[in-house]
Fold:
Amino acid sequence: MSKLDKPEKILATALKLFVAYGFHGTPTSKIASEAGVSNGTLFHYFKTKDELVVSLYTAIKEELNQYLAEKANETGDVKEKFRNLFRYSLAWALENRDAFYFIQQFHFSPHLGLVPDEEIRKQSEKHRNLFQEARDAKALKPLPPDLLMMLSMNQINGLFQYLTAQTVSAENQQQQINDVFELTWTMIVNPEKP
Amino acid sequence: MSKLDKPEKILATALKLFVAYGFHGTPTSKIASEAGVSNGTLFHYFKTKDELVVSLYTAIKEELNQYLAEKANETGDVKEKFRNLFRYSLAWALENRDAFYFIQQFHFSPHLGLVPDEEIRKQSEKHRNLFQEARDAKALKPLPPDLLMMLSMNQINGLFQYLTAQTVSAENQQQQINDVFELTWTMIVNPEKP
DNA sequence: TTTCTGATTGACTAATCGCTCTATGAATAT
DNA sequence: ATATTCATAGAGCGATTAGTCAATCAGAAA
Structure:
């Protein structure tokens, strides 16, 4: 068949349909037929529909984390690290809108309960460490690192929603991404110079 | 029957179940039985399940807006207005966790498409005007008002998620709400003094 | 070739769910 | 008292869906 092997093709099709019709609004039969495989093949690779949903979530998260690990390298000062994390997260989100939307859709669904807590924490461990260390080095405000991270992540979500709702030119988009990063940075940076 | 009349009882039960099991994970029969009414009664008040979902959403939004209209009165300077909007939004969210969670769940579901765009905009019109006017008066940074509003709203969402994930004492909670409001304010306020 | 293993199919099923419908009850108006 | 209207019940129907299963196919191993 095509270049994608079948499990990947099934996941890609499921993503498209889940975003358009929701989890329960998308029958497995439709996923199978649109992916060009039979109903039985889908259940050969994924024991249940729930397992398919969770597999899709973890696959997307891994893809995002791998992308960030490649792009957002560790060079530069603290602000530069955060800038890279911010801008590359948004770059990935805008290039993979369905996937980024799906992450949030998943987070506000009962399926989230199917993923162990430790798995969830592990997925953001590197970023959490970044916030933890920067705060310990007094580069960030003396607030809980989890709170600082949560606020920064939600800045990304908010900007993503804004950018996908409007139609903005590519340059304006970059401009606004830069602007909002500066806002976010002044928000979390420690104003005292130690 | 109980003090709540039946449509309200049905909506309250649906909210609880939707948050726990998702829209499609909750059959109308279960809503009816847990609400103490028959299946037919449910469909007497709500023509379809979709209509029930949308009604629940608009009812919650109206309740929130009415609460804010009462509490966040218009006295005080600009910063005070925003502080009231911020803290009372969070107060309501923490007192009505299911309802606040449901709003986000609804926003990331295909049911959102069933609500006309103008209806959605109307629900946040007053807040949008607040941002618009404050920016026009050069009290806020010269960015699109919609963007400023989106970012501020997402600060509330992020803090809500943080506070509901942790177990924090009531005083610490108030402290953190104040802290995060100050962060948000320094983020959106215009640093130039005209 | 023969055998074995995993991939693939699609018809089938058992269960569920949204919604309808008829019958009855209760309340108010005439 | 009668009529009218709305509320309520709950059995039941038609449609849909997740998941199964027996049969076939393809390729590798022996």
